[in-house]
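pasting for ref
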Amino acid sequence: MPPRRTTPKARGAAEPKRVPQQQQNTRQVATPALSMAAAAKLLAAPPKPKPKTIAPNNASFEVVSPHLEDHCALLRVLASVFGTELAHPDYLERLQRIKQLFYERDFLGIFGDPALVATYSARYISGRALAYLDLVRDVPAIAAALDACRTHPVVSIGGGAGSELAAFGFFWRTRRLGAEGESNDPLQMLSIDIGDFSDVLERLQTALGPPSPTAPEEGQGRVVVSHRFMQADVLQPDALASLAPALTAAPLVTLFFTLNELFVQSRAGALQFVTKLTRTMRPGAILWVCDSAGSFSDIQIGSREYKITVFLDMLPGLERVAGDDARWWRVADGEAAEYPVRIENMRFFYRAYRIKATIRE
């Protein structure tokens, strides 16, 4: 299933992979970005061999989810949000067009077309939203960073399609309603993307607002997510300057199925973006990256190819607190019936890094 981007993106997964401004903060980007030569030197070690075997995308064995009830509830929310797109007479034609444009790596052709962006979200965010929801619950450092996003937003770069909003918003809603004494403060969230996903995100935010289906009498009228959307190309020279106020305050910044798209568009621009981003984020904040675990996420620097995970792990100023080079998320028995179209299994890597205090020096 395709990824999420913020510049002419290149998303990635099982089918086509998703491929993703406020005054400048004077503390931003005190350190120059990595040059191509510096990056090549940083990655001088031989690249790790690629795995030889990969399990089939939809293996026929039983999958049991410990979060089946919540997964099904979130899928019902998504089915209600995207009912119009999934039932549209041109749905299959639009989906085929999306796949063709992904094959051609014409990402702006997809994300610049309002009819295609909504179809993209309807088709591809369901599995990702569930995978992200599971990671929030499984990784304490990520859950703690998200919990801190009550006064300052989690910033989702390349988050326009809505899987981040769906996962984080649903987590916030169910946790708040399920625990006594839980704060009623809404989750603060900012999504940034190169395409105009404002309509999709507004519908998702509205759908996440009502109380949990298992406790309809609780939380009536409370805002679950205070969400803003910003349309921006983060590879533009002035993009991070305009985003600096949000990034310097954010406890959590996410890059989901976006980073490899940035490298596809511009290797030099992506190197500069990553180094500026890590130097703009505040010490102690978490940078959470997810992307395809396959060769789609290999990047070329000079004449050699490297895994994005190797590049990220060697960046100065980042402390890896969690990660997996190849994690499978599979549709569990009982989930598929809750969504009108097929939910794709997903093999991806993830990294969670804590920004070190010395990174600004």
